[in-house]
Amino acid sequence: MDYLPFTRPTLDEATIADVGDVLRSGWITSGPKVKQFEAALSEYFGGRPVRVLNSATGGMEVALRLIGIQAGDEVITTPLSWVATGNVVLNAGAKPVFVDVDPHTRNIDLDRIEAAITPRTKAIMPVDLAGLPVDRDRLNDIAARHGLRVIEDAAQSMGSTWRGRRIGSFGDLISISFHANKNLTTTEGGCLVLRDESEIPLFEKLRLQGVVRSPDGGMDVDVTGGKYNMTDVAAVIGLHQLKHIEAFNAQRKALARHYFAKLDRTLGLGLPVEDFENSNWHMFQLTLPLDSLRISRGEFIQIMHARGIGIGVHYPAMHLFTLYRGLGWKEGDYPHAEKIGRETVTLPLFPRMSEADVERVCQNIHEVLSANMR
To answer: For a Cys-Cys bond, which of 229, 262, 358, 366 suits 30, CB 3.0-4.6 Å?
Structure first.
C-alpha cells in the first residue's frame, strides 16, 4: 500500500505550466507576479495592505521592527509553537514572555495574559495552533486596555475565520505562512498584513536592505533592512493556490469530520476542539494516552511509519529546548504546554486525501494502541 505522508502540497498542471512561463520570462525574482499576488491577497483580506516575503518568520521579524521592539522590551507569547515564534523575539534583542496554554484549545490562555504584563511589555504575539483561532475579541480588548501592539502569528491560519471574519481582514499585524505544508503554499514564503498604509514605506525598506530608490536612479539607505523578498516563481504558485483555498479548506474540514467519526474514543486519545466554524483544519492533532501505553510516542510513530503512515509532532514546548533552558526556563514552568508537547502527534491531513485514507489511519491507530495498552 502507498505511503501516506502527514501532509502533501496540492499543485495542479496549470500551476506547473505558469511556473515554466515565469522561468522562461527571465524575470524570476521579485517582479510583476509579486505585485499581482499582493493585490490578490489584499482583495482576499478585504482591502487591507498586504506585502509578501520569503517566510512568515521574516514577516514576524519585520513586524517587530515596525513596532519598534528593541533590547529590554518584552513580548508575550505561547511556548507551544514552532520555535520561530520565540526566536524572532530573541533576534530582536527582546525577551519572549511565555504564558501557558489553555489545555482545551492548546492556544495561549487568555486568562493568564494580564498577569504577565509588565512596564516592559510592548506586544502580544498569539499563535493559532493548527489553524484554530485565538479569541480575537478578548485578545484585542486586552491589548487595547494595556496599550499593546498585537502581532498575530497566524502562520497556520490561512482561511480561518473569527465570528465570520477572515483572519487577516481585521486586527493589527498578521503574519501568515505559505510554507510547503500550509493550506496555501508558495513552496516557501509568507505575507504580512499591515495595519494601514502608513506602515508600507518602512516595511518596504525593512524587507530589502533598507534601500530607497529615487526616480533618477539613485538610492539611499537610512535603516538596516534584511533580505526577505519573495520571488515571482513563488508568487505565481501562490496566485494559483489562492484560487483554490476555499475548496482546499472545505476538503480539510470534511476529512476532519471523518476523523472525529472514525477515531476510537475509548482509547483515551486527546482530540482537538471540534470547531467547524472558525478553524481551517491546518492540522489534525491528537494527544496519546502515554500513561496507559507500553510504548513511547517515538515507538508509536515508528510503528505507524512501518505501516505506511506518516505522523508528525507539532510541537514540543519550546522553553525546554537547550537554547531556552540556557536562558533560564525549566521543566515545570508551563505544565499544560509541556504535557501537550510530550503527548501530541499530527495525523495525515491534506486536500488530496480520501475518506478511505482517514479510515486507514484510524484503523491503524486502533490496532497499534489496542495492542500496546498496559
So the answer is: 229
